[in-house]
Amino acid sequence: MIMGRSPRGPRTFAVLAAGVLALAATACAPGSSAPPAPSPAKTAASAVRTDAASLGDVTLTVWDQEVRGGQAAQMKQLNAAFEAKYPNIKLKRVSRSFDDLNTTLRLALSGNEPPDVVEANNGRSSMGQFVKAGQLLPLDAYADAYGWKTRYPDSVLRYSRYSADGKVFGEGNLYGLPQVGEVVGVFYNRAKLTKLGLEPPKTWADFQAALEKAKAGGEVPMQLGNLDKWPAIHVFGTVQGRHVPAGQISTLAFGRKGASWTTPENVKAAEELVGWVDKGYFEPGFNGQGYDPAWQAFGKGKGVFLIAGTWLLADLEKALGKDLGFMLPPGAAAGAPPVTTGGTGLPFAITAKSPHPDAAAAYIDFITNADAMKVLTSTGNLPVADTAQQSVQAGPQQDVFTAFGAATKDDGLVPYLDYATPTFADTLGAALQDLLAKKATPKEFLDTLEKDYKTFAESNG
Amino acid sequence: MGRPPGEPGRVAYLYLLPAFVLYAAFLLYPIGRAVQISLYDWDGLTLGRWAGLDNYTAILSDERLRAGFGHALVLIVFYAVIPLAIGLTLAAILNHAKVRGLGFFRTVVFLPQVVAMVVVAVAWRRVYAPDGTLNALLGALGLDGLTRGWLGDHTFALPAVGVVGTWFESGLVTVLLLAGMSRVPMELYEAARLDGAGAVREFFAVTLPSVRGEIAVALTLTVIAALRTFDLVYVTTRGGPGDSTSVPSFEVYHRAFGLGQVGSAAAIGVTLTVVIFAISFAINRLADKGTT
Questions:
Q1: Which residues in chain A are closer than 8 Å to B129, comparing Cβ atoms?
Q2: A291 and A438, same structural domain?
Q3: Per-residue pLDDT tens digits for A71-81
Q4: What is the domain extent for residue A140?
Q5: B194–chain A nearest CA distance, Å
Q6: Can you give the pTM of this predicted structure?
Q7: A68 and A169 together in one domain
Q8: Where in the sequence is the signal peptide annotated (chain B) (predicted)?
Q9: Contact (CB, 8 A) for A112 and A353
Q10: Least confident of A404-408, A445-449, B36-40
Q11: What region does A119 belong to: left with phi over 0, alpha with psi -120 to 50, or beta?
């Protein structure tokens, strides 16, 4: 018989268990080898040097997640240019996919020789915790020296700002600088609109009328695949932006005290979204459809609208060509100031233990300066700064550039809702699946969100 | 009792030492460390704060986690009980019918086991998609009313995930039982036949008791697989829709790497280990009892 018991089985087990416990008791507390928080003296503006060429021989280790198509191309090009300009600085580049970087960065940062420059996710459970652990260097002195604060809109920089204790997100010290922008908007299929006798809608009412007409015309009004839990967050955020004041959304999304999910405006937004399900604007079974198959279906001509982020631009343009259009979610009236979910690509940060912060800052400046923004444009990315100055061909890429420029110019970007609390991505994703499947009423849905938000905001002080 | 001459018993332990060092370094130490971490409130970065048993009481009071353990128990039905029923039937038939090409059938039945779970999960995700194979099949049979986004349906997502487990484990169970049954001497069957037993009676009187050991092995392996399901859920549903397919292993990963609640994740891991240990222990105790 397997696992047969020998007469002394129990005793052996007891001895082993005792050994394990003794081991546990004598080992030191987890994290006791963690680095002490860096002294704030380092951040004085007078101490920073921007003359990268005279820093002597330096090797910088850079961890990034620019592994796909245009992202990889721009990084390669900029790194080569940097090494050519500053022969004294060598780059050791390590690139990993987003998921891999996220899971390994935590360990790398707690080691004794972390990389010098890292691309860290903005959210509380990544950048927020690294700041709290004193693992990232505040960049404000460099920002002053290099003029980042004048080149980057404030609505963009705030996504890399934290208080020194990591508690407050969206204000405080600057801990990173992003290269690219992101904005959630409405992709549409121009050919289908024309066939339905429609123009790209100018107001929110027009937009809903267009959905209705698409339904009547036998089309799939809106493509959505929500199996991965998070895609509906962007759809809900878009609807919410039409009903809830932008200031309130920012407070909720940064997880700060002073707002509420259970307001009549939020109820209205949730009800409107459920109304779309009732009217059959999404395909049946959308909760069981993957995100990728859904946007791929849109690319193959199934669906009139798709609410998604600009990160899909390159792939969708390849599939639909000139038929693809992109716009910011229209407001209540034509020409109303834009409000939409958006942010930045992952910001580049400098680790607190890096022995070469000046060289690291010079590198970050180099890959985000005006010339770098041109390289980003030419490789099919959406540069986060100087967007309006770039010249691109008319078509979907220009639509996206115009949209992002408009949204940042008027401070119309509101943060991703899942930034709110460390658990909010999950809470909101699951709650939206419940809401859209009618397992929860709009009120129950908002109560769930309120509970997570309130618990965190109260305990966070 | 006297010791055999020239063989000091204690030297034997020396022979065990190399293996024990490896075992301790890669198994006992990590387990001990996990137990220790589970007693701290630790984010994986800063200094941990002693939390005593707080992480464990939190598991008990967390409704979502309790639901997760409940889902794992449901998965046991799909991973262990149903495959056992299928395996017993299939093995009995294959063993008896003296089918030609037995090796071929055995290979086919066992095939799911050699495919990586992630690949299996990606494939089944396509099968269950709203425009996937399953719905196409139902449509072709005129059962359009039954089509749905299987993995996005609050009622059917967990059974859908479970069926993948059934498909995956049935082959293993069948092959294990087949090996056991082939060892049963023919004389036993002949004797049963002479005593006038039919096929069913023969199965319960001869076959089943003879493969008790294999059943215990099969149940142990499949129950453990059910309880630690991670990759399947990670790839197919990520615990959704809502929380209807969340399982403990997924929570461990999610809390440790997603949320940075390493202490809590370790506590779930330790709890899961204890549950798995208890259940496998019970299974083997039951199987042992039957033979003595």
A1: 288-290, 293
A2: yes
A3: 899 999 999 99
A4: 54-180+345-368
A5: 30
A6: 0.85
A7: yes
A8: none
A9: yes
A10: A404-408
A11: beta
What gap in Å lies between CA B158 and CA B77, rounded to an integer?
11
Are A204 and A293 in the same domain? yes
Q: Is A19 on the interface with B (CB under 8 A)?
A: yes
Report CB contact under 8 Å: A19, B242.
no
Nearest CA in chain A to B221: A2
Q: What is the amino acid identity at position A172? A: G
Whether A329 is covered by a domain: the verdict is yes
- Name the residue among B44, B135, B150 with its Cβ closest to that of A106: B44
Interhelix angle A231-243/A424-436, rounded to 10 degrees, is 80
* Residues in chain B closer than 8 A to A290 (CB atoms): 125, 129
Asked whether residue A112 falls in the same domain as residue A175, the answer is yes
Residue A392 resides in a domain = no
A293 and A351 co-located in one domain: no
Q: ipTM, 2 decimals?
A: 0.82
- pLDDT tens per residue, range A209-242: 999 999 999 999 999 999 988 999 999 999 999 9
Contact call for B152 and A2, based on CB within 8 A = no
Q: Is residue A44 part of a domain?
A: no
| Structural domains counted in chain A | 2
User: What is the Cα–Cα distance from A332 to A325, expressed in whole angstroms?
Assistant: 20
The predicted-structure confidence for A138-153, as pLDDT tens digits, reads as follows 999 999 999 999 989 8
The domain that holds A210 is classified in CATH as 3.40.190.10
**What is the residue extent of each domain of chain B?**
62-291
**Preferred mutation among A28, A107, A433 to probe B, highest tally of B CBs within 10 A:** A433
| Model pLDDT, residue A141 | 94
Rounded CA-CA distance B160/A285 in Å is: 14
pLDDT 10s digits, A17-60: 555 555 555 557 777 765 554 444 444 455 788 888 889 999 99
Tell me if residue A121 falls in helix, strand or coil: coil
Contact A290 B152 (CB under 8 A): no
Clarify whether residues A155 and A214 are in a common domain.
no
Whether pLDDT at B97 is above 60: yes
- Residue A459: pLDDT band (50, 70, 90) is confident
Q: Pick from A31, A284, A293: which is nearest to B45 by CB? A: A31
Record: contact A31-B240, CB cut-off 8 A = no
Which pLDDT score, from 0 to 100, does residue B232 have? 94
The pLDDT of A258-269, averaged and rounded, is 96
Give the span between the Cα atoms of A106 and A123, in whole angstroms: 13
CATH topology classification for B62-291: MetI-like fold (1.10.3720)
Assigned domain for A3 exists: no
Query: Residue B127 and residue B211: Cα distance in Å, rounded?
Result: 35
A217-256 residues touching B, CB cutoff 8 A: 226-229
Nearest chain A residue to B242, by CA: A430
- Cβ–Cβ gap A23/B29 under 8 Å: yes
Residue of B149, B243, B287 with shortest CB distance to A288: B149
Q: How confident is the model at residue B6 (pLDDT cuts 50, 70, 90)?
A: low
C-alpha–C-alpha distance, residues A413 and A209, integer Å:
25
Spatial contact of B174 and B86, defined as CB atoms under 8 Å apart: yes
pLDDT average, residue stretch B61-80: 92
Among residues B202, B198, B171, which one has the least CA distance to residue B92? B202
Residue A158 and residue A190 in one domain: no
Q: What is the dihedral of CA A168, A170, A172, A176, to 10 degrees?
A: 120
